[in-house]
Write a sequence for this structure.
């Protein structure tokens, strides 16, 4: 399962900003890491078998001016992507319906105070699920030297019953074909996650990225008969470019 929160609309605004524009939303430059890598983690939410999948890197957005990163509040777009779940590929889920790939579109409210960043997101899904979901979290940034930057983060993930029903529920029809008991989970906090991320600059614009995270399913999601393991660790590594756009 792949999940990523991106800020592509802001990048698009940077790309389309007219030459000579003095500022946009109170800043004159925006930069972020974009690249590709690989993630090794559970084969589905609640699975206990490991699986490698692509890691689409689009993160560490910095909004600023020539004086440095812009502090305080910002309202930004938020996007997500979730891979499909094919029951034929997972022996434990035999008889369950497949879930298509899903896109998510919404908004992020972010607050930066020195090295601390707090945020909340809200997104609507389409495709594989039609639920509403989001995250509340905080990150701490530590610049070890001019090449190595570390982030530690803690996040609570929330969703409505449309989302939890899609990924953790069992309909009567699925119960008959799979042998799982029928299960209709409620919405709310469905997972919590802590992580450590590192970026090592190989060149001024190219970096080696790494991330280790530990997630745990909560509440009705954790009690689903589909869940083999509530603990959901993962490790990711990839290469990214630092893209910078000035207005």
């Amino acid at each position: 399962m792949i999940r990523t929160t991106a800020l592509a609309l802001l990048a698009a605004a940077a790309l389309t900003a007219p030459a000579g524009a003095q500022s946009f939303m109170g800043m004159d430059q925006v930069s972020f890491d974009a690249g590709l890598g690989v993630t090794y983690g559970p084969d589905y939410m609640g699975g206990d078998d490991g699986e490698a999948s692509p890691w689409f890197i689009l993160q560490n957005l910095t909004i600023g001016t020539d004086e440095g990163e812009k502090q305080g509040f910002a309202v930004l777009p938020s996007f997500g992507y979730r891979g499909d779940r094919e029951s034929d590929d997972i022996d434990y889920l035999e008889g369950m319906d497949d879930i298509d790939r899903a896109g998510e579109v919404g908004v992020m409210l972010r607050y930066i105070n020195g090295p601390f960043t707090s945020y909340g997101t809200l997104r609507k899904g389409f495709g594989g699920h039609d639920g509403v979901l989001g995250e509340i979290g905080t990150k701490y940034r530590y610049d070890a030297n001019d090449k190595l930057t570390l982030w530690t983060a803690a996040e609570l993930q929330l969703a409505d019953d449309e989302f939890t029903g899609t990924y953790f529920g069992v309909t009567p029809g699925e119960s008959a074909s799979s042998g799982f008991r029928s299960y209709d989970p409620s919405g709310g906090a469905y997972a919590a996650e802590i992580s450590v991320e590192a970026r090592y600059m190989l060149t001024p614009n190219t970096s080696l990225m790494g991330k280790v995270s530990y997630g745990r399913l909560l509440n009705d999601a954790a009690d689903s008969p589909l869940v083999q393991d509530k603990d959901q660790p993962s490790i990711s590594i990839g290469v990214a470019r630092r893209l910078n756009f000035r207005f």
